[in-house]
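Internal tracking record. Fields below are filled automatically when a chain is submitted to the structure queue. Please do not edit lines marked as system-generated. If the sequence contains nonstandard residues, flag them in the REMARKS field before resubmitting.
Queue: standard
Priority: normal
Entity type: single polypeptide chain
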Amino acid sequence: MPIITIKLAKGRSVKQKQQFVESVTKEAAKHLNVKEEWVTVLFDEYERENWASNGQLHSIKFGEGFGKGE
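SYSTEM-GENERATED OUTPUT FOLLOWS
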């Protein structure tokens, strides 16, 4: 039973996350030779002010609304 954890900044819509888990589930089942119902996907979502790369907080680096597109 694969458990896949996705870490990402908050802001994605339910629609985006649903489409993502459908794709990930299908591919995981195919490549790991398991049933789709055995695949679990967990989201760990972080505020952009709690995530940084290249020495800059994402809340400053990317600004409001980044990654929220549908």
